[in-house]
Design goal:
mainly alpha
Length: 143
């Protein structure tokens, strides 16, 4: 997390709920489509498309959630297909595979915790910018 601040204006209850739901969408999709990494991205993308014309607060948080899921797609897809190749081909489990899977697990756990924290704070109307994703979101979303 980079920054947790209040917006200049107080987002309404409806705005805070929608912004918080943009993060919860990825968690719900994680439970529904656990082995397939693209399910989280699709669910977050659908929520983003449904709210891209919303208020700045909602749009900003939908965009940040979408960007985080996009990077997670690459990390998890690589691990998923590497695991599939080990199961269905002559590949063996190597030190590189174990190291990658541990790194991917740590990244996923950190993203999971950050998502829960951000959903809670955003529901309270507190603006949370994630490191890296917050700066990208600021470039994409204009007030």
């Amino acid at each position: 997390m980079k920054n947790a601040t209040k917006f200049i204006y107080e987002p309404g209850e409806h705005e805070s709920e929608k912004a918080s739901n943009s993060y919860l969408m990825s968690l719900i999709a994680l439970i529904a489509g656990l082995p397939l990494p693209i399910i989280n991205l699709i669910a977050t993308l659908i929520f983003y498309l449904g709210n891209r014309k919303g208020t700045f607060f909602v749009r900003w948080h939908c965009t940040q959630a979408l960007l985080s899921q996009l990077s997670m797609l690459f990390i998890n897809s690589f691990g998923f297909w590497w695991t599939v190749s080990i199961i269905f081909t002559d590949d063996t489990i190597s030190d590189k595979y174990i190291a990658y899977m541990i790194a991917a697990l740590i990244f996923n756990l950190a993203e999971f915790i950050a998502t829960i924290y951000t959903a809670i704070q955003t529901r309270k109307g507190i603006h949370v910018e994630w490191w890296f994703y917050g700066n990208l979101t600021n470039l994409i979303c204009k007030a």
